[in-house]
Write a structure and sequence with these properties.
The complex is a heterodimer of chains A (214) and B (10).
Chain A (H helix, E strand, L loop, with lengths): L2 H23 L8 H14 L10 H23 L13 H13 L10 H19 L2 H9 L5 H28 L4 H24 L7
Helix pairs in contact in A: 1-3, 1-7, 2-3, 2-5, 4-5, 5-8, 7-8
Chain B lengths: L10
The chains are: A mainly alpha (214), B little secondary structure (10).
Chain lengths: 214, 10
């Protein structure tokens, strides 16, 4: 565990608390894309199936369980929110899910000569979760561009997700250099994902930071 | 490596 990975994880954790705070204290899910949240839940469930077969550390176990539970709760709250206007949550998610699944079937870390079929299916689902996470923010980004009244907390939520991605890139540079750790699937998808946030940070700068003191 | 041995990130 290096400092970049830890800061990235804490920023990811903070993003959950920001979103939960928005949902609980404003009692409104306006501006929150149910599609993005459902994609994140899919990502965590597919990636953390290894909870059942591998133990890395208590830190990893608890974070994984929290990510699954929190995203499931967020999906539940947003889906059942009566005041949510989903009119602008119009992204066609099949254009994200299907290509991610097809790509995962062909580009993955399976070793069919070693482990059983279940471990290899987990490898395919792991790759799927990596590809899907890279693009899962797109429905939320589309909403932010369409809505004028996005609350600052939703923007801070997105910013903390972007910081999480940026620090994971630094973490991979560090781990490649000092540990020889190298997962090309995660790194390439991670770079794509971080680039998508560059678009968001321009919006963040224009709509939040430039507007702060009036 | 079995799944999980080298996948220690979130």
């Amino acid at each position: 565990m290096n400092i970049f990975r830890f800061v990235g994880d804490m920023s990811h954790l903070a993003s959950f608390f920001l979103l939960l705070a928005k949902l609980i204290y404003t009692k409104s899910s306006t501006g929150v894309s149910l599609k993005t949240q459902a994609l994140y839940l899919t990502v965590f469930v597919c990636r953390y199936l290894d909870l059942l077969v591998a133990f890395v550390s208590w830190y990893n176990e608890l974070m994984k369980i929290f990510f699954i539970a929190a995203s499931a709760y967020i999906v539940y709250v947003v889906a059942t929110s009566t005041r949510n206007s989903n009119a602008s949550d119009t992204y066609r998610v099949e254009f994200l899910v299907i290509p991610a699944l097809v790509l995962a079937c062909f580009v993955n870390e399976t070793h069919w000569s070693k482990g059983g079929w279940s471990l290899n299916v987990m490898e395919i689902l792991w790759a799927f979760s990596i590809y899907l996470e890279a693009v899962a923010v797109l429905p939320q980004l589309k909403m932010l561009h369409q809505l004028e009244d996005t609350t600052n907390i939703t923007m801070h939520y997105m910013a903390s997700l972007g910081i999480y991605r940026a620090f994971y890139l630094l973490n991979w540079v560090y781990r490649l250099y000092y540990e020889g750790y190298w997962h090309p699937i995660a790194v390439v998808a991670g770079i794509v994902q971080t680039l998508l946030y560059a678009d968001f940070f321009i919006l963040y700068y224009q709509s939040v930071l430039l507007r702060l003191p009036s | 490596d079995a799944f999980g041995d080298s996948k220690d990130e979130l």
